């Protein structure tokens, strides 16, 4: 750790840009800054070629074709385009399929997109999850019928890190004749992803979750059989008419390089990160009797821990007592109030325990010394806070 810099363990919120990604992007800001759609001249064509090379790298990471990749501003836009785009296109074709099925633990942008569609005549179905955070496949199967248009299930949960059985969910979608969308922002580079194996029709990605830049993401849209979407907004018809607007070539190049690194080094990263997660957890469990890990321990992404401290303690107080460590609480800010995480509530965790929960995200640049030191700092903070609140 650099002097005076906190230990960063919030890699689910965002990852640092890999130096190799930054190096790949820099020339497209400083030397060739042309609009990639200005193909009438040499600099524009060079920018276009760089964007298309990046598109190919993104596709390679998930086993897709380059022409199936639509560049967006991030996973929130990708999720909105996938869900609302599929629904509105189906409505334009007067389809009788109006049911959209998801889980209670999905990202807010998925849940809100689906709820928005209720005002347009669609039927949202939000299913509970098991106590370990995984989908109940029997309940999912029971929710599907010939009215089902789309299933949207996150590959890796952004709070509790559980890995859903995407292949099984994709198979259920196909049996029902429904589309399958997965938000894979937290999965890319952390677990193997292949759109053919999981039978995904739509898959969302985000650059800043895989050591790439913020402000860029992608949506995989299957070509065979072709998935049709209605665009969210009007414009010049870029990105196959699905996402108008001038592409940011440096950001696209950065996402492409991040995808290349994830595809070639991701599994090596995963093994090392899992070891550091276990080192951190072992040290913390020894120092904090009664510590609990939320979500499945077996079906879990390598760098994630969602941990509830024995009370009486408050996660916000814990973080204030440990400013040397950057983590996040299991809570989401709503207006001016901090409320217990809806994901933890969906697991049946009582409000008081949800308020005593921290999310840990260990990443590519976390060292073993960082993991051990962070565990010691958080254990000390817990002892001070718990003592003060008794």
How do the helices and strands line up, and which of them pair or pack?
Blueprint: E1 7-8, H1 19-25, H2 27-30, H3 42-62, E2 69-72, H4 75-92, E3 99-103, H5 108-118, E4 123-127, H6 137-143, E5 148-152, H7 166-176, E6 179-183, H8 195-198, E7 202-206, E8 217-221, H9 249-287, E9 292-293, E10 304-308, H10 315-321, E11 325-326, E12 328-329, E13 331-334, E14 337-340, H11 342-346, H12 351-354, E15 357-361, H13 368-389
Helix pairs in contact: 1-9, 3-9, 4-5, 9-13, 10-13
Describe this structure in words.
With 390 residues, the protein is α/β, with parallel strands linked by helices. It has two domains: 7-15 and 266-389, Aspartate Aminotransferase, domain 1, CATH 3.90.1150.10; 19-261, 3-Layer(aba) Sandwich (Aspartate Aminotransferase, domain 2), CATH 3.40.640. It is 41% helix and 15% strand. It is built from 13 helices and 15 strands. It has helices at residues 19-25, 27-30, 42-62, 75-92, 108-118, 137-143, 166-176, 195-198, 249-287, 315-321, 342-346, 351-354, 368-389, and strands spanning 7-8, 69-72, 99-103, 123-127, 148-152, 179-183, 202-206, 217-221, 292-293, 304-308, 325-326, 328-329, 331-334, 337-340, 357-361. The strands form four sheets. Strands 2-8-7-6-5-3-4 form a seven-stranded mixed sheet, sandwiched between helices. Strand 3 (99-103), helix 5 (108-118) and strand 4 form a beta-alpha-beta unit. Helix 10 packs across helix 13 (368-389). The chain is globular, with a radius of gyration of 21 Å. The two termini are 34 Å apart. The model is unreliable at 331-336 (pLDDT under 50). Belongs to the class-V pyridoxal-phosphate-dependent aminotransferase family. NifS/IscS subfamily. Catalyzes the removal of elemental sulfur atoms from cysteine to produce alanine. Seems to participate in the biosynthesis of the nitrogenase metalloclusters by providing the inorganic sulfur required for the Fe-S core formation. Its cofactor is pyridoxal 5'-phosphate. GO terms for molecular function: 2 iron, 2 sulfur cluster binding; cysteine desulfurase activity; metal ion binding; transaminase activity. It comes from Roseicella aerolata.
């Amino acid at each position: 750790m650099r002097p005076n810099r906190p230990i960063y363990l919030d890699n689910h919120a965002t990852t640092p840009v890999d130096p190799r990604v930054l190096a790949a992007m820099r020339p497209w800001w400083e030397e060739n800054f042309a609009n990639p759609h200005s193909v009438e001249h040499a600099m524009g064509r060079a920018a276009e070629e760089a964007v298309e090379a990046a598109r190919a790298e993104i596709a390679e990471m998930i086993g897709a074709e380059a022409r199936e990749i639509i560049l967006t501003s991030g996973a929130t836009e990708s999720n909105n385009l996938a869900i609302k785009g599929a629904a509105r296109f189906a409505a334009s074709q007067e389809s009788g399929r109006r049911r959209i099925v998801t889980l209670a633990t999905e990202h807010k942008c998925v849940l809100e997109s689906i709820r928005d569609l209720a005002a347009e005549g669609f039927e949202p179905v939000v299913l509970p999850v098991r106590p370990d955070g995984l989908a109940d496949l029997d309940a999912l199967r029971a929710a599907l019928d010939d009215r089902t248009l789309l299933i949207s299930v996150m590959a890796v949960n952004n709070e509790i890190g559980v890995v859903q059985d995407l292949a099984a969910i994709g198979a259920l979608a196909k049996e029902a004749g429904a589309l399958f969308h997965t938000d894979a922002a937290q999965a890319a580079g952390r677990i193997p992803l292949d759109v053919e194996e999981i039978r995904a029709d739509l898959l969302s990605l985000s650059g800043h979750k895989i050591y790439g830049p913020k402000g860029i993401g992608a949506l995989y849209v299957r070509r065979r059989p072709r998935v049709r979407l209605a665009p969210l907004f009007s414009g010049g018809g870029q990105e196959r008419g699905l996402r108008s607007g001038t592409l940011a070539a440096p950001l696209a190049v950065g996402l492409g390089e991040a995808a290349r690194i994830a595809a070639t080094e991701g599994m090596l990263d995963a093994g090392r990160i899992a070891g550091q997660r276990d080192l951190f957890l072992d040290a913390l469990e020894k120092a904090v009797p009664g510590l609990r890990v939320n979500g499945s321990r077996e079906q879990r992404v390598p760098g994630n821990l969602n941990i509830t401290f024995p009370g009486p303690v408050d996660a916000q107080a814990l973080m204030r007592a440990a400013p040397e460590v950057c983590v996040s609480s299991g809570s989401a800010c709503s207006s001016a109030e901090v409320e217990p995480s809806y994901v933890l509530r969906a697991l049946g965790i009582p409000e008081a325990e949800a308020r005593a929960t921290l999310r840990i995200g260990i990443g590519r640049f976390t060292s073993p010394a960082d993991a051990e030191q962070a565990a010691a700092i958080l254990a000390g903070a817990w002892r001070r806070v718990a003592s003060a609140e008794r």
